[in-house]
Design a protein that fits this description.
Order of helices and strands of chain B: HHHHEEHHHHHHH
CATH superfamily of the largest domain in chain A: Response regulator
Oligomer: heterodimer
Strand content of chain B: under 5%
CATH topology of chain B: ABC transporter involved in vitamin B12 uptake, BtuC
Number of helices of chain A: 13
CATH architecture of the largest domain in chain A: 3-Layer(aba) Sandwich
CATH class of chain B: Mainly Alpha
Structural class of chain A: alpha/beta
Strand order of the largest sheet of chain B: 1-2
CATH class of the largest domain in chain A: Alpha Beta
Largest sheet of chain A: 7 strands, mixed
Largest interface: A-B, 33 and 39 residues
Distance between the termini of chain A: 68 Å
Radius of gyration of chain A: 22 Å
Strand order of the largest sheet of chain A: 9-8-10-11-12-17-18
CATH architecture of chain B: Orthogonal Bundle
Shape of chain A: globular
CATH topology of the largest domain in chain A: Rossmann fold
Helix content of chain A: 40-55%
Shape of chain B: globular
Chain lengths: ~400, ~300
Amino acid sequence: MKRRGFLFSIFLSSILFLTLPASGQDIPIGFFAPITGPAAADGASAKNAVGLGLKEVNEAGGIKGKKINLIIYDDRLNPQEAVAIANKLIEKDKVVGVVSGSYSGPTRVTAPIFQKAGIPMVAGYAVHPDVTWDPKGKKPNDFCFRNGFLGEIEGAAAGEFAVKNLKAKKISLIFMDNDFGRAISSGFAERAEKLGSTILTKQMYKFPGEKDFRPYLTRIKEGNPDVIFAAGYYNEAASIVRQAKELGITSQILGEEGFDSPKFLEIAGPAAEGVIIATNLDRDDPRPLVQNFLRNYRKTYSEDADMVGASSYDAFMILVNAIRKAGTDPKAIQKALLETKDYNGLTGKISRFIQGEVVKPVQIQVVRGGKFHRLAVVDNPEVITPPTK
Amino acid sequence: MSSEFEDVKRLRTQNLELRTQFMLWQQLANGIAIGSVYALISLGLTMVYGILRILHVAHAGIYALGAYVGLLSFRLIGNFWLSLIIGMAGAAVAGYIVERFLYTPLLHLPRIAPLIVSIGLFTALEEAFRIVAGPHTLAYNARVGLGDLSIGGFHLTETQILILFVTFGILVFLWAFLTKTRTGLAMRACAQDPETTASFGVNVGAIIAVNFLIGSAMAGAAGVLIGVYDNQVWPTMGSIPAYKALAIVVLGGLGNIPGTVLASIIVGLAETFFIGVLAIPFPRDAVAFVAMILVLMFRPYGLLGKA
């Protein structure tokens, strides 16, 4: 009798183990980023920063005693790859939530998949509107949230700063031919013109591939603008800034979050000095949360954290925060995310999400002594509140 | 009072005109600089075609290799001019190896065989750069030591002076080599009729090797120059030149050296003026192909090509 009871208990526990593999102990969260391929530097930043967050949470005992199991995939900046990853995360890994540490391309194609499966996703810095919006159904993807700014909002904030703080009257625009470039420059132009500035030239360059910006910059120089609003990622940003200096252009260059990378500072060298950018990471934010993160990141990876890393970290922590409040049911997590209020994020205080879009101030940083530093904060609600559709 | 106002207004217009004039000169410099680099890349391609009738697509890989070798030696030695020479030498050696071990064994086959090999080699080279040097863009932060040239609003940057200087030097060398030396003469003869040239006792194999060495060294120089001009060296830097140089070579007249130089400068200037003066949002990399189509409609053998 005793022996039978023993066997029975083994039988029972083995069934328990089979039906609840690992997830009985851990909370599975999915993560994807372009860890190899053309955006590998950003993919590495995202992965490193989220890794730091994971360590913090698990070392502090996890969530209600359960450790987080982060399942990491490399999308290689390839949307097809991302679709396969999304399906794998849902069906094989049975994740309760997902963090995107990737660009718009891979993130927007996975959004409808997570939406349909009812798995909440928080995107770190992907900018395309269709991450949080279903263009076919003309309704929000209410399981998808974005910690970064919409291109239009960041552009408008940069425009606000250019006109109100830099007193720019004449402005020239140069931006890359992709969703982000078009969105951010149209947001900028709209705001700057509304505040009374004149846009002298708008030039769009081929992305990826353009390296020689001299023809564009020479044309800009002719108009002699007060401010040049330039959009691009760190390679283009470094080229624009260096070549402008070579050509003797003295106009203030105002960039965006694509500039926000140690790679930009490295390639642009001394030409980066004095360049101003709109971004979402404030290195001089005195909150311990920010300073600890910057210090830990530098200690762990021996390089400075950037906006991509900080945004991905935030996306991860926002999801963790929701799980802490609501438990591990995806639907309950989504509800907790919808109810996010005055969340103390690394990239600023998030007042709430409107149709999945974050509401938080835009940071204006300037390069001084080869590092990004705080210059101003744009928190005008008229500018930073995302439009509802 | 009103005349004073008129004066100010006139002065302003004059200033603007002056500035616009300088800008045109500036764009001219921008266009010729980039066109010169196109010429250095395309010349090797047209020389190889002239003598072997092979479309040497991997030439763009040799160009990127030159940039990487130059950058590596610059980081080790710290002298730009030495790194330029080492980059050219590295590219020349690589070009020679490609000729000896990949093209020569295939010359008895239809020309599609070496073309396929060439495309395969080009892709393999790009991947090799990525694996060895990493996927990131590397900075080629060299001090050339020439200084800028600035006249009013017109500004010839140090790297533009460098490109014009190096390209001019190489072109003069090439001209002197092809017209004043026996090897150069033999090379031109080979391009016209290899069999007859061989019957005069010329070692055609050696001539082909010299041809590859010179063409590849020029591509290597182009790689280093672009590396410094854009301050960037990256694994796929050859992918746009790979097809743009083909268009330029056809535009100039396949195998025609002066035609290739002319076509390169025209394409460089056209790109620059489309973007910077006319401000037509026309894809930059399509300019070479549109020019090629337009010229071929009226001159089927290219700008300076002969039937």
